Amino acid sequence: MNVRQIKVLMVRELKDLRFNGQVLLLFFTAFAMIFLIYILNNLTITFSNEQITFFKGMTSLLSFISILVTMYTQGNIMVEEKEQGTGIVYRLMKVRRINIFLAKSIVTYSMSYLLFTIGMIIYGYSLPQILMASIFTIPFFSMWLFIGTAIAEYAKNTIDVSLYGWPIMIAYFLIEGFVYSSLLNKLTILFPNYHIERGLTLIENDDFTSVLKFMVVPFIWSGMALLFLIKRRQKNGLH
């Protein structure tokens, strides 16, 4: 890891973001969702005599931010290296892939965290709650960074990133709908949705000591996403 290289790459990425219409659209869409979810917080539908709630305050907002901004932005800015043909230039300059990944991940994470913080303030979180939520969501945001990067490894361009991301987004929100109901209750505990929802609820109730156990499953999913990404890169002969 080369800190100087990472700083240079981050500066370049931040300058490019001003002209990246796709990323800006994702950012402002997620920003609009902060207020939309706040208004539609109690929207429910009935399925098999069970009520399913698709919007639940900060939990739903976190899901939209992590998918729209973290996953899609990371995927888009990673795949741009293929579109622009800068990969060869980086190799000639001996810029390691890990430095490119870290630089882009820091930019993506910063955008996601900014939106998340704005949401927490609007939803009335106190400073201790914001700090605890910041720590609690690290493995969750990391998981989506790895997923976005893995999508970019498969994709040839930003259109492919959009297409490949849709099934993941639909599946995740479908599971989230089950989490908010009693449907498939025993199975949802295997997914990060369940633990994020429980953890944020505890944070809202200032029960910080019980939150840590709900970080375990998101850490496991983050680890699996990282292993999948590493295997994909090894298959492509990338380091």
From TrEMBL:
Spans traversing the lipid bilayer: 21-40, 52-72, 101-124, 130-151, 163-183, 211-230
Tagged with keyword Membrane: yes
Keyword Transmembrane: yes
Keywords: Membrane, Transmembrane, Transmembrane helix
Protein name: ABC transporter permease
Source organism (scientific name): Cytobacillus stercorigallinarum
